[in-house]
Amino acid sequence: xxxxxxxxxxxxxxxxxxxxxxxxxxxxxxxxxxxxxxxxxxxxxxxxxxxxxxxxxxxxxxxxxxxxxxxxxxxxxxxxxxxxxxxxxxxxxxxxxxxxxxxxxxxxxxxxxxxxxxxxxxxxxxxxxxxxxxxxxxxxxxxxxxxxxxxxxxxxxxxxxxxxxxxxxxxxxxxxxxxxxxxxxxxxxxxxxxxxxxxxxxxxxxxxxxxxxxxxxxxxxxxxxxxxxxxxxxxxxxxxxxxxxxxxxxxxxxxxxxxxxxxxxxxxxxxxxxxxxxxxxxxxxxxxxxxxxxxxxxxxxxxxxxxxxxxxxxxxxxxxxxxxxxxxxxxxxxxxxxxxxxxxxxxxx
Length: 349
Description:
alpha/beta; 15 helices; globular
């Protein structure tokens, strides 16, 4: 841990005993046992309900075409449009959520590669949210920027049975799946899935200054380079005085290959260098309480553990089941190798 510009210790709330199962391998496994069947059923139902008059076979062709266009970096479509083309369906079958996490020694000892990959992500959720879980009021308001495939808000909602959560996504389809998951988990009365753009003040105007913590995992790269400080400032504006902004993300330590740079640009992702990341945090008016960096070697096993699942083979056939995980594994190695991952906690100065 290496705070860069002061610790503001007087703003840090007192810690309390964490919930049972928090930051423990056993608790994370129990969460997966509860969450995965619910998430998988909700996503399956979403993608197998005909939309816009499309039959399932046509839907599958759209899924494959969307994935090939993005991975081939020849698409002019935006990420939300690719969601509408069911791009996420393929990924939901090979990993838990659209982020990664460092492999702890305990996780490395797990024999099942898919379970290792899932546990690394749940462990990242726990580590990122730790200050909020240990210090926020039990019935407080927590805001998540970036709903993803719902592992973040679901983990916290089940750990903290009185807390209220707002999870913000730019994609309506993602929100529909998340709401179905919340209903099946029995937490819909405490979890609001909100659709909107963080850069649109109307999206979060009612939340300004009300959150006991704000979290964002894998979000910063989606802010264009000139707007990274603006995005961080918009998240920090939701916080109560002294409440923490909690981030898990990555910055590049060397340049990406030409292929990776093109592929990331096509998916609207801009990973900053560390100095640019820190400059954006400073420009946003944030003082750091935590800047816990992890080298690429701690995250690269995630790429090695990506593999075909029976569900992928059943829905898309043996060719896609064989090729798609290999393409994603290669892509992830190209993404992770020039980076360090970081957990950070910041408060407004």
